[in-house]
Amino acid sequence: MPDELTHFNAQGQAHMVDVGDKASTKRVAIACGSIRMQATTLEKILQGNHKKGDVLGIARIAGIMASKRTADLIPLCHPLALTHVDVALTPQTDPPSIDCTVTAETHGQTGVEMEALTAVQITLLTIYDMCKAVDKGMIMENIHLLHKSGGKSGNWSSIK
Q: Does the keyword Lyase apply (predicted)?
């Protein structure tokens, strides 16, 4: 594990990391998180009778769109040509919640961890936005990187 922060130069100033000499490899990142809610909120989402429309479908599209705009949101991220983004939403009844898992892929010189994490956050925020009129107490939690592969540092996984 590196012992220094890579987004600072020798003078301690923030900078974009130079990836120009790095090899292009297949990069994959998987991130996840969840949003807890009242059982009645989950029921409305699953029945599809929410007055704002298909909550999960709209949230899925928002996550994909966010992954493509990560470099616009995170100042020192490189813009990436994503080759695939999958947003999986899984409802849970105990506790009432929706789990979100995002897989982001590219073939390039830097990883896609930030794109996967951004997509999770925006997917969950979209669910919150669409349902806040009936449930302001929703809680987004446990948002983290599950796995990354590719590049010089190789594979990393929190999956046991």
A: yes
